[in-house]
Specification:
This protein is mostly helical. The protein has one domain. Helices cover 69% and strands 0% of the residues. The chain is built from 4 helices and no strands. The longest helix has 23 residues. The chain is elongated.
Length: 72
């Protein structure tokens, strides 16, 4: 399925926002710590590549990979 660049950016932003809030809520990270964890992750690099299709997945599914990467 093809999406516009703006749609891709919005979908990615929604996933990132959800992952940040989940880290803050479930793992008691500060907002800064959560931002740093997400934006410095290998998963974020993959999410930035539209060909991976991660932006089509649910935020919970993507978050499970982030938790594995971070050791939670």
């Amino acid at each position: 399925m093809n999406v516009s660049k703006a749609e891709y950016q919005n979908m990615k932003a929604d996933i990132v926002k959800d992952m940040i809030f989940r880290l803050m809520d479930e793992h008691r990270l500060s907002m800064q710590e959560a931002f740093d964890a997400v934006y410095s992750s290998r998963l974020f690099e993959k999410l930035n590549n539209p060909s991976t299709g991660l932006y089509f997945q649910s935020s919970g599914y993507v978050f499970s990979y982030l938790k594995d990467e971070l050791g939670y």
